[in-house]
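Hi V.,

You were right to ask for the full record rather than a summary. Here it is.
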Amino acid sequence: MNPDVLDLARWQFALTAGGHFLFVALTLGLATVVALLQTRATFSGKPLHARMVRFWGQLYVINYAVGIVTGIVMEFQFGMSWSGLTHYAGNVFGASLAVETIVAFFVESTFLGLWIFGWHRLNRWVHLAAIWIVMITAYLSAYWILVSNGFLNHPVGHRAEGGVLVLDDPVALLTNPSALLAFGHVVAGALVTAGFFMAGVSAYHLFRRTSEAEFFTRSLRIGVFVACPALWVAAVFGGLQLATLSTFQPMKSAVFSQKTAEIAQIQADMTARFGPGDYIPSIGLTRGAGLVMLLCFGLMMYLTFAGVILACFKKVVLRFRLWHLTLMAAVPLPYIAMISGWVFREAGRQPWVVYGLLKTEDAVSDLSAGTMRLSLTVFAGLFLLLAVLNAWLLARHARRGPVDAGLGHDDRPTTDAAPDPVDALPALRY
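Predicted structure:
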């Protein structure tokens, strides 16, 4: 295998999968918040609660619409750049990817369409059910993706047959600890992302002394009170994953802990078991990504702890401009933590694409370096364009604040409109 092709294929998948993951983080978290907000609005019947659903729901829809395009594009790579992986292990992890596609692109998108266009047309309880189905299917979509990813990190539930892997134990695959622990970690991290996003956008408007003080005071508090417990849940699942590394991926655990003697021993053991090769992942990338993730967690921990205290005082929420600036600056923190955690998880298992079974160099397609350079350029350019477009749309709508136009706006003619003057004229007799 040409090493240039391998490196280009890895860079391409890292950029596209990482880029898509950033969209997922906000989408998954905001879906939960919007569903809870609409539940409250449905039971309370208060206009303020309904306006909060429409404003934050609009931001969710924007992020979802752009993010789903990145997901479709990203999955093209499995057949194009990683044919060795799909040929060898596609019978096992391909089924969960197919189910995720059905859940995300059909069920979730269908009910999201009903929710978007069902305002003032569907019964309020039916409309509420639609957003809850969207949220549940979003969680299911994340779960099925992590079933596939969990298999790559800790392959279970399979057997070898004819030189390829086939599914042998579906229950073991679906209850893979590598998938379940990652699912809890990702869901909690998504709620942290949504909480920081809500708090940052709300802080921006309060900093500018908005006339919608009540709206954004409540939104900021929701963001803080969502982010704080979610951060600790993410930490618990993250700690459980670190604890399993010594069993599932001992080399990654040794690299992260900087145990030089243990690294050398594992390298020798794997050489004896799998043949000559370098079984040590990039120490700088693996350990560096893990440390960045932990640093971001520490910063967010202090911010959320202080935020919960400050959010209890309405005057502080309205007037503490330094806190507003801090919350605005902190919006990228969960994104950095999520992407660095993903790099730690994926880069740390190298040189394996299916841990202990298939090396990355054996999984890449037989392509020329020129073809991979062109593919990388196209994919990276497209994802950069989509990321910039998404950021611009989110910032544009967030700056506008809650307006009457947009999601949920009732543009139907009202029944108490003034009668047409022509209709008021007496009928002419001929």
